[in-house]
Amino acid sequence: MFPIIGIAGNQLIKATETFQGNQVTYTPQGFINAVQQANGLPIVLPIASPEAAPAYIDRIDKLILAGGQDISPQLYHEAPHPKLLETNLQRDLFEQALIEEAIKQHKPIFAVCRGMQLLNVILGGNLYQDLSNYSDWTVKHEQQPTAPQFATHEVTIVPATILSQLLPTTHFVNSYHHQALKILAPSLKATAYSPDGLIEGIESADENTKLLGVQWHPELTHFINPAEQRLFDFFVQEF
């Protein structure tokens, strides 16, 4: 049996990003490859009305939330910061519905980068809209111009967590974010931290709710780093 892994998709919608003049629904190829390598069956879920979320979640076994645009600050009741980048409220609201329905249907969620941030917001937390708002910011969290397969900074894994079963206590990761978790949602617990104190991993505080999130991008390194592939192997086959 191949577990069916729904991957919440993104869109190319701006004129400068379209594919031969067409808007495109997509997910990064790394998620497809990593899920297939873990003997899962990946299916991309296109952005749709929130009302469609129950039907989508009913047809999959587990849900992946990928990276992408900034989270709209409307979701955590803040005005947009001057350094806020592109948002897509339609995507936010659809993925909110996917999260709520997956939890309702007891389907596991693996949330990556923006996905982890959105999961925190939907469950009652909030974000630094830009790292310039974080007074202890001392670590490079934007990967460019370094290629994604090369780590940018280290993270420290919290003992007795899901991540501690899969990764070494000190783990080196890539990094593509200018937003970060600020107040952690009450139903979550932090599982990894960067050297400057930002939350880099989360899981549910309730062991009966299967949530796993990382701030970095294992889908971009899984093919050269077995530790990153273990995240997908665990999620697809064990979680």
TrEMBL record:
<dbReference type="InterPro" id="IPR011697">
    <property type="entry name" value="Peptidase_C26"/>
</dbReference>
<dbReference type="Pfam" id="PF07722">
    <property type="entry name" value="Peptidase_C26"/>
</dbReference>
<dbReference type="InterPro" id="IPR029062">
    <property type="entry name" value="Class_I_gatase-like"/>
</dbReference>
<protein>
    <submittedName>
        <fullName>Gamma-glutamyl-gamma-aminobutyrate hydrolase</fullName>
    </submittedName>
</protein>
<keyword id="KW-0378">Hydrolase</keyword>
<dbReference type="GO" id="GO:0005829">
    <property type="term" value="C:cytosol"/>
</dbReference>
<dbReference type="GO" id="GO:0033969">
    <property type="term" value="F:gamma-glutamyl-gamma-aminobutyrate hydrolase activity"/>
</dbReference>
<dbReference type="GO" id="GO:0006598">
    <property type="term" value="P:polyamine catabolic process"/>
</dbReference>
<dbReference type="InterPro" id="IPR044668">
    <property type="entry name" value="PuuD-like"/>
</dbReference>
